[in-house]
Amino acid sequence: MKPLKKNLMMLAILLLATAFVPNERIYPETLDWDTHFRGTPDANSQYAAVTSTIWQYGYNAKTRGNNLTIDFSFLGGVDADKSWVKRERISNRNTSKILLNHEQGHVYINFFLLKNGERILRNQPYTVQNYKRLVDKTAKELSKYYNNMQDRYDAETKHGSDLEAQERWNRFFESELSKL
């Protein structure tokens, strides 16, 4: 093989190897008022901001006799068109920072649902007879668990106004994010 062709081949192999880095760390979205809060504020709501998140999963199952193969797909993130902020309620940079930090917590919880839901659903043992029921049941349980966490987060932090409780949750988020 000619040296130039050999070098090009080695470069191509190196590029392919680095393109698929195993265990690449994926981070949740970092909220920004302009990018993530494009919805129309609810005039009747007492809240200054609402972050709407989504979690979706799908799967394609193939059976051949008693052999089962399931390919999952997952999607999660912020629905910017349903998330909103009442900008007139943000009086200064500090208020903005505190409120955006609280809303970021909702994104973290949704990210935990996405990553843990993916791990649990992909690694759960299925059979040809039970996979439909088990996928649906597990996904509902995961959704309920993380929806309850969202509610508890708001209740404990008083929607971000209890700074001490917010700091406890911030530490929890840091700890959980470091595990993913």
Summarize the structure in words.
The structure is a single chain. The protein has 180 residues and is of the alpha+beta class. The chain contains 5 helices and 4 strands. It has a two-stranded antiparallel ribbon with strand order 1-4. Helix 3 (93-123) packs antiparallel against helix 4 (131-157) and helix 3 (93-123) runs parallel beside helix 5. The N and C termini lie far apart (44 Å).
Topology:
Layout: H1 3-19, H2 33-36, E1 49-50, E2 53-64, E3 67-78, E4 84-85, H3 93-123, H4 131-157, H5 163-179
Antiparallel strand pairs: 1-4, 2-3
Helix pairs in contact: 3-4, 3-5
CA radius of gyration: 22 Å
> N-to-C terminal Cα separation, in Å?
44 Å
Question: Helix proportion of residues, in percent?
Answer: 40-55%
Q: How many helix segments?
A: 5
Assign an overall shape: elongated
Percentage of residues in strands: 15-25%
The overall average pLDDT, rounded, is: 88
